[in-house]
Design a protein that fits this description.
This protein is mostly helical and about 475 residues long. Helices cover about 70% and strands about 0% of the residues.
């Protein structure tokens, strides 16, 4: 890494146009990884009812996109949700959000990176998933420490490869349609314990919707790149909404193709690797290998994008003097040549690489439900921001306010309830989220509550 020199502006480089920001955001969402990793779980839960689950999740996602768009257009800063919630609901909830987001995002980087070895294994069997994950994170961290414009270019190329894999999946399904589209609406089916097809209940479809919501997550990452996006206040809200719409199309259409085009519905629903089963059946082994390699590329691309996001959050917290002197100064450093928060990037990469050695189930439990709390706080923040004037300077206003925020909040309450009922994963995950919030609250009371120098500020240049 080249040595740091003074940055002429003292801040991040506003080098991205809206399209560049959109490429990075879509890479963080990584639709292909969701189709190959999350979609099979939803199919296992709801069968062909997974189509309706993803439709409902798309509607909820659109409501949340409206919330994100309004808040991020008012505060397009590197702090993302931390700044938006802190400015609308108060400093306490802002700091709790900061801790929740940072812990979950570092763990998510590890979870995502651990998946690279699975898909590289089609060419190189018996890879050590943990060390492959570490190598993936280190390489992604090196790329993420470079100029943001270069990162937009790199992630854009990789995003193209991942979208091509989804196009292949879609074409294979729609040229071999075995059942009508109407069957997904009127007669969703699932396997019973004897592997016989039976109707999928509304309860199962709704429960699967709670999982499908997470498959679309990531469109709100646009806010983190607001200080590096030209005319951010006017463009970030549109980037958020477009990211959600593209994500829904990129995941829902291939899912539909797989459900309609699978040669044997029972075989698909019973298969342990559902998307790979479909590919083998319709495209053959060679194509399955090629697509698997494309998914490995998609996962690596996602790691780059999420490291970029996490580094900007840590950078923002240091700039706001959230921690202690030397730590604040270090993570708030901007590289003179690359105009990137390079030390924050290194810290994120090191923490995420270390997390690769934590049991995967523990990683999922700790990070699993924090998103529900963050989304709920954003909904409340959007409503409060209108009432107290905190978002008055934003250039985007959600349609039919406050209906989207209220409906999204109610949906999140339902998701939290579903998690509470799940003693094996959901309930422990909720408890882990509450524990993280409690630790954050203690730090706030002991160190931040009385400090006048701690403030969630945004650089003056983003006001335009």
């Amino acid at each position: 890494m080249p040595s740091e020199v003074p940055n002429s502006s003292g801040g991040l480089d506003r080098a991205l146009n809206a399209l560049g920001t959109l490429m990075i955001v879509l890479s963080a969402v990584t639709p292909a990884s969701s189709v190959f990793i999350i979609v099979p779980g939803v199919i296992a839960l709801a069968g062909t009812g997974s189509f309706l689950s993803f439709v409902l999740a798309g509607v909820i996602g659109l409501f949340m996109a409206f919330v994100y768009a309004e808040l991020s257009s008012a505060y397009p800063t590197a702090g993302g949700e931390y700044t938006m919630i802190g400015r609308t609901l108060g400093r306490f909830w802002g700091f709790v959000t900061l801790v929740l987001v940072f812990v979950s995002i570092v763990l998510i980087i590890a979870v995502v990176a651990l998946g690279v070895g699975t898909y590289l294994g089609v060419l190189m069997p018996n890879l050590n998933a943990q060390w492959v994950g570490v190598a993936t994170i280190i390489l992604a961290g090196v790329v993420a420490a470079l100029r943001i414009k270069l990162n937009a270019f790199v992630t854009g190329i990789f995003l193209g490869i991942e979208m091509l894999a989804l196009v292949i999946l879609t074409v294979l399904g729609f040229i071999h349609v075995e059942r009508p589209l109407s069957s997904l609406f009127t007669a969703p089916q699932i396997l019973d314990t004897t592997n016989a097809l039976v109707p999928a209940s509304a309860g199962l479809i709704m429960a699967a919707t709670a999982v499908a919501i997470f498959a679309y997550n990531g469109y709100g990452a646009a806010a983190y790149f607001g200080e590096e996006t030209q005319d951010a206040k006017r463009s970030i809200g549109k980037v958020v909404v477009w990211a959600l719409l593209i994500t829904v199309a990129a995941e829902l259409i291939p899912l539909t193709a797989v459900l309609l085009g699978s040669p044997d519905l029972v075989g698909l629903l019973a298969a342990p690797q559902k998307i790979e089963y479909f590919l083998e059946a319709r495209g053959g082994h060679t194509l399955t290998v090629l697509v698997s390699l494309a998914i490995a590329v998609a996962i690596f691309n996602a790691v780059i994008a999420i490291v970029l996001q996490a580094a900007r959050l840590l950078f923002s917290s240091g700039r706001d003097k959230t921690w202690f002197g030397p730590i604040n100064n270090a993570v708030a450093s901007v590289h003179g040549t690359y105009a990137s928060p390079w030390i924050a990037t290194i810290v994120v990469a090191v923490l995420a690489a270390a997390a690769c050695f934590i049991d995967i189930n523990l990683l999922l439990v700790v990070s699993g439900t924090s998103l529900v709390v963050i989304y709920a706080l954003l909904c409340l923040g959007a409503i409060a921001g209108r009432r107290n004037g905190a978002t008055a300077n934003g250039h985007y206003r959600m349609p039919f306010f406050p209906v989207p925020a209220v409906l999204a909040f109610l949906a999140l309450v339902y998701v939290a309830y579903q998690n509470l009922l799940d003693a094996s994963f959901g309930r422990p995950s909720l408890m882990a989220t509450l524990a993280i919030m409690a630790v954050a609250a203690v730090y706030y009371v002991l160190f931040l509550a009385r400090r006048a120098d701690w403030t969630m500020h945004a650089p003056e240049e983003i006001a335009g």
